[in-house]
Backbone:
């Protein structure tokens, strides 16, 4: 029973890692590089939702606040691509890494100077509510997180598999030159993907904030999500989600049954093991397509 | 009537004059070949037409539209398709997916319609699939339809790239060394396809090619270039017997004598 309880919490946490990891994968597909500001975009998204929705701030209804925050963060993501990332087009991948690390600091500073560094709580309709099922306590926030993650993943999958824009984005990520030749506006598509990743980061941020207080440093969770994306194979959306779930589930179980600080190390140990045994990740694009 | 018109086009990379004052016109329904030694600027001319490079000077007009300053993704919708010397395909996709991607600019459905998979989307999808199947049949790619590009042999990938260009339903197709790296039989097949493209599909073909046998077999007119400058323009026989062209390929007799 205790294991089931841990498993449930782990899956809910893993969903958040997975959502941030989805952001990593999106950007990796669009710009062929890693966006280390992904965690900070999540943080900013959560704060914007808080700023719009909390009763002592703008006090908008929760749903409206979240949707507005997604739209705003979509704009932030699009703007980052437009103003910053596009300038280093054609530079080595490393340039994007350094640039996004710096960007992360900027976003943290921006959030810190608006909302301060003391932890704040996002007011949601489901914060602190629980359901009893058998012997386990199910947090409503956890249930919502799992549900939202499932819906969002299916939505993204459908977007990439079926829509004209999604197919264009996939094409551009595989071969930019070829994409141009068949008429794909590669730059515009990349901007759109950055916007999408901003919106996804906001969802992750809101889900994270529904379970506890937030401060401008919660973006460091992005490192764990990055490990999840690497475990999943960087280029694979379902891989990212599963990588997140794996880390999410292992953490609490290791915390309960393994000694000392092992839980904090577990995500990175898994990442190392995966990198050594399957360097291209558990669900690398190559393998996923072979099926 | 000329479909493509290049007037005094030039592109300089720093001090290197990759293309320097080339003019030519490709007539509708014509097979036009550009030949020249390695580094003569042939592929660069293609890259100017597909707007991957921006011209230093000159003007290119296609079907009455000035494309000199057009963004490169707007070239395809005008009806210009191309292949690359080094093959640019979507490697982690199947042959069918690559060809369907060629239909991109012909898709008119929007995001919401796509997600809802409306009858309009289905109708359009069937039409694209039909066009792609015609190309598959024409190039005899049936056996590879569901195969990933990454695992295919070089010769097949070359054909798939021609297929993607054809699936785009262009008016003008640019073929960058379609026979390079192919066996004698395969390059004969390419010659037949080029003939059919012109005759049955009404396409205009502009090709860069080293294989003079292929050029002589299919091209109506040939432009020879060297060091970014035009050398000769005429029928394959005329160009081949041009003293400047022979000098460019073999070295000048005067130099040898000296």
Residues:
């Amino acid at each position: 029973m205790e294991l089931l309880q841990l498993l449930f919490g782990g899956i809910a946490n893993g969903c958040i890692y997975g959502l941030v990891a989805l952001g990593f994968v999106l950007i990796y597909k669009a710009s062929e590089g890693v966006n280390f500001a992904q965690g900070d975009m999540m943080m900013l998204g959560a704060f914007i939702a808080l700023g719009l929705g909390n009763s002592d701030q703008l006090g908008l209804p929760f749903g409206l606040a979240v949707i507005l925050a997604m739209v705003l963060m979509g704009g932030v993501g699009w703007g980052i691509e437009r103003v910053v990332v596009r300038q280093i087009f054609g530079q080595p991948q490393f340039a994007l890494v350094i640039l996004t690390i710096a960007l992360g600091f900027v976003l943290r500073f921006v959030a810190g100077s608006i909302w301060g560094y003391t932890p704040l709580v996002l007011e949601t309709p489901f914060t602190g509510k629980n359901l009893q099922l058998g012997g386990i306590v199910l947090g409503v926030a956890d249930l919502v997180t799992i549900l939202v993650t499932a819906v969002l993943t299916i939505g993204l999958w459908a977007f990439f598999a079926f829509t004209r824009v999604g197919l264009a984005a996939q094409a551009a990520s595989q071969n930019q030159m070829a994409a141009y030749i068949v008429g794909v506006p590669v730059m515009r598509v990349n901007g759109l993907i950055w916007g999408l990743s901003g919106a996804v980061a906001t969802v992750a941020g809101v889900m994270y904030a529904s379970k506890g207080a937030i401060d401008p440093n919660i973006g460091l969770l992005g490192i764990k999500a990055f490990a999840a994306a690497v475990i999943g194979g960087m280029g694979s959306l379902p891989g990212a989600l599963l990588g997140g779930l794996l880390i999410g589930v292992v953490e609490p179980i290791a915390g309960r049954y393994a000694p000392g600080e092992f839980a904090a190390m577990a995500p990175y140990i898994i990442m190392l093991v995966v990198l050594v045994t399957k360097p291209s990740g558990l669900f690398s694009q190559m393998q996923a397509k072979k099926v | 009537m000329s479909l493509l018109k290049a007037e005094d086009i030039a592109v300089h990379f720093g001090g290197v004059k990759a293309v320097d004052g080339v003019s030519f016109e490709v007539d509708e329904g014509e097979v036009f070949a550009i030949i020249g030694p390695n580094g003569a600027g042939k592929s660069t001319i293609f890259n100017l037409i597909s707007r991957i490079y921006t011209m230093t000077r000159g003007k290119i007009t296609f079907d009455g539209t000035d494309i000199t300053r057009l963004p490169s993704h707007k070239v395809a919708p005008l009806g210009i398709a191309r292949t690359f010397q080094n093959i640019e395909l979507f490697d982690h996709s199947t042959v069918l997916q690559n060809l369907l991607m060629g239909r991109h600019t012909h898709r008119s459905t929007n995001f919401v319609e796509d997600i809802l998979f409306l009858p309009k989307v289905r109708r359009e999808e069937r039409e694209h699939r039909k066009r792609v199947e015609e190309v598959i049949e024409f190039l005899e790619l049936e056996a590879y339809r569901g195969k990933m590009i990454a695992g295919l042999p070089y010769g097949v990938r070359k054909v798939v790239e021609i297929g993607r260009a054809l699936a785009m339903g262009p008016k003008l197709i640019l073929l960058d060394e379609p026979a390079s790296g192919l066996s004698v039989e395969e390059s004969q097949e390419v010659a037949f396809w080029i003939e059919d493209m012109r005759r049955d599909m009404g396409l205009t073909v502009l090709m860069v090619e080293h294989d003079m046998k292929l050029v002589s077999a299919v091209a109506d007119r040939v432009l020879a270039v060297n060091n970014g400058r035009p050398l000769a323009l005429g029928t394959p026989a005329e160009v081949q017997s041009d003293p400047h062209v022979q000098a460019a390929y073999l070295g000048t007799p005067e130099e040898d004598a000296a």
Summary: The longest strand of chain B covers residues 2-13.
